[in-house]
Specification:
single chain; 51 residues; mainly beta; 1 helix; 24% strand; flat
Length: 51
């Protein structure tokens, strides 16, 4: 390996129920999914929130 890294930029969107759309970049596997958005300001416990 030549030490080069390949990080493709995959465009992604987060579309909320009220029609609001946030554009960004995807990490991980490509695909479509439905789920919940979680907002947390706690100093600990964030690992459990995303699992």
């Amino acid at each position: 390996m030549s030490g080069q890294r390949f990080d493709p930029v995959i465009p992604a969107i987060l579309a909320l129920e009220d029609g609001t759309v946030f554009r960004g970049r995807s990490i991980g596997a490509a695909g479509e999914t439905v789920g919940e958005v979680v907002f947390n300001t706690a100093m600990t416990g964030y690992q459990e929130i995303v699992s």
